[in-house]
From TrEMBL:
Record keyword Ligase present: no
Compartments, as annotated in UniProt: Membrane
Keywords: Glycoprotein, Leucine-rich repeat, Membrane, Repeat, Signal, Transmembrane, Transmembrane helix
First-listed, main subcellular location of the protein, grouped into a coarse class: membrane
Protein name in UniProt: LRR-RLK
Entry keyword Repeat: yes
InterPro entries in the cross-refs: Leu-rich_rpt, LRR_dom_sf, Plant_receptor-like_S/T_kinase
Domain of life assignment: Eukaryota
GO cellular component: membrane
């Protein structure tokens, strides 16, 4: 293990890390490293945890993510985090070749663009996928429906378009779903009502229309927030809203809702 989290180390990441033959944890997070990530980190095949988050790595350039190409060699990799840096470019399709043992993939708060590779659906043991606050565009891949163990999905703050696919309702273990601040269209899929463990649902600031599905407003598991604000939803608030007995925050502001406030509130 080599951990230097939360210091002021700077400069580039030494290529010599690959000489540590039994390195299984490399945590360089919360420092001020700059430059490119060494492309040969994949030579450390025993890596279980690689944490590069909250540095100044990358240069918003197309080659910034080339280090990912060697990581499929790390067949034991369970946690990969590189959020909060300056990485640009598109996600390579080879990201699908990462270890099927991968449990966390966190790459938010960068400048990553392009479409989300459909191949991410092959990472079937993920329980957390964070891609928030990037420049990602296009639809949410249907292949996400294969991520049956996923509990946290964070896609907010991108430029994603298309509909909220009903396939997301297949991810029944979801507890936190962030889709806000995108360009998603169409209606809210009622299939999200299948996510009986959902504590947080944030789909604010999109282009959603139609009515609020009863299947969602009636989810008793929602306990943190249900945020549907800044869309074009219409119709009344479903009377099933009274089932949200444990909700901490409900926001339906800036829509086109009408009618009476249900007495169940």
């Amino acid at each position: 293990k080599f951990g230097i989290h939360g210091n002021f180390f700077d400069g580039t990441i030494p290529v010599s890390f690959t000489n540590a033959s039994q390195l299984d944890i490399l945590d360089l997070s919360d420092n001020i490293f700059t430059g490119q990530v060494p492309k040969n980190l994949g030579e450390r095949q025993d890596l279980v945890w690689l944490n590069l988050e909250h540095n100044f790595l990358g240069s918003n350039a197309s080659e910034d993510l080339s280090f990912l190409i060697s990581l499929p060699n790390c067949s034991n990799l369970k946690i990969l985090g590189f959020d909060g840096n300056n990485f640009g470019g598109v996600l390579p399709n080879s990201i699908a070749n990462l270890s099927t043992n991968l449990r966390q993939l966190v790459l938010g708060s960068n400048q990553i663009l392009g479409k989300i590779p459909v191949e991410i659906g092959n990472l079937v043991n993920l329980y957390r996928l964070g891609m928030e606050f990037n420049l990602l565009s296009g639809p949410i891949p249907i292949s996400f429906g294969k991520l049956q163990k996923l509990q946290i999905l964070d896609l907010r703050g991108n430029m994603l378009s298309g509909q909220i696919m009903s396939i997301l309702g297949n991810i029944t273990q979801l507890s936190d779903l962030y889709l806000s601040d995108n360009q998603l269209e169409g209606t809210i899929t009622s299939s999200l009502g299948n996510c009986k463990n959902l504590h947080l649902l944030d789909i604010a600031q999109n282009k959603l229309v139609g009515t609020i599905p009863q299947q969602i407003i009636a989810l008793p598991s929602l306990s943190i927030i249900l945020n549907l604000s800044h869309n074009s939803l219409m119709g009344p608030l479903p009377v099933e809203i009274g089932k949200l007995k444990n909700i901490n925050a409900l926001d339906v502001s800036n829509n086109k809702l009408s009618g009476n406030i249900p007495g169940a509130i």
